[in-house]
Structure formats: C-alpha cells, structure tokens
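Our consortium's second objective concerns turning raw sequence data into structural hypotheses that experimental partners can test. To show how far this objective has progressed, the report includes one record in full. It was chosen at random from the queue rather than selected for favorable results. The single chain below, 132 residues long, was entered without modification.
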Amino acid sequence: MTEFPFSTTVDVRYQDHDTLGHVNNAVYVTYMEEARVAYLSEYAGLSMDDISMVVAHLDVDFRRTVEYADAVEVAVGVTDVGGSSFTMAYEVRDGEQVAVEGESVQVALDPETGESQPVPDEWREAFELVED
C-alpha cells in the first residue's frame, strides 16, 4: 500500500453491487469522486463553492473485488500540479487490501468562460501545505 496524506470512509450501498455480488466497476469512480471532494474541502481547506474544474482524464486499475462490505477506505493525494491541471492518485481499500488504484487529472476552469485557466495560487498553496 502506498502512503497517502488523506483518507476517508465511503459507505458501500446495497445498489453498488452487481448481479455477481461484488461492487460494480463503475461505482469505484464515484468512491474516488467522494474522496476527491473530501480531500479538497476537508483536508486542503478549499471551499467547493469556489472551485471550478473538470475531470479531464481518469485511470482505474482493478486489483481485487469488494464483496459485501459495509464501507471502503479511499486514500487520496495530489501528486502533480501543472500549469492548468493537477493530478490526484487514489487507493480504494477493503480492510488492509487494495481493491482499486486510480489517477485523475483535473483542469481548472474560468467560471465565467468555461475555458481552462492556470491553477489558482490558493490551490497550489493548499496542495503544497498539505503534501509536505
């Protein structure tokens, strides 16, 4: 398991399971999204009302299935900050086992135009502050 600066517990809901009895592969992306929002608001201290961004790229590697769990732990951290984007890495854990590893790239948007813009200094400072 990789060390991450932040993790959060995400409930596994009954409807998250598919007909084979394990968490459906598409649901893990939602778990990662919940962790991303928690990281940005709770850990980095950024107001979600002030964040304008879009996910531009997403990679998900499935390591093992999650079956009949009440919750999973999702670890997350910012791994790179570029000009107008930043990268986050994730691990979805079922107990001590890593079920999914993922990475997403978010692009900062100008809320007025919807066009990409440089990652705001406030975000950069928050990412540096929490990653040290």
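The partners drew two points from this record. The chain is about 20% helix and 35% strand. Residues 27-43 form the longest helix (17 residues). Both points have been shared with the crystallography group to help prioritize constructs.
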